[in-house]
Predict the structure.
Amino acid sequence: MKDKEINKKVINLISEVLNVKNLSSKASQENTEQWDSLAYLSIIAKLENEFKIKINQKNINNFGSIKKIVDEIKSCLTK
């Protein structure tokens, strides 16, 4: 899967969870009010389901931005 495809899927999934239209690829917990701890857990579960991956728990704490999430998914997909 290409980087653009992963990025688009992640943005769409997070937009859906947060109920935010036109979510920027620069979105993060710090600049997106709806991205709270409950949404965070829902995002992780949906990512694992969508990409058929298991995200390492020690890496979950680094998921504060879309870029970091995309990087982790790419890492999981190449394993």
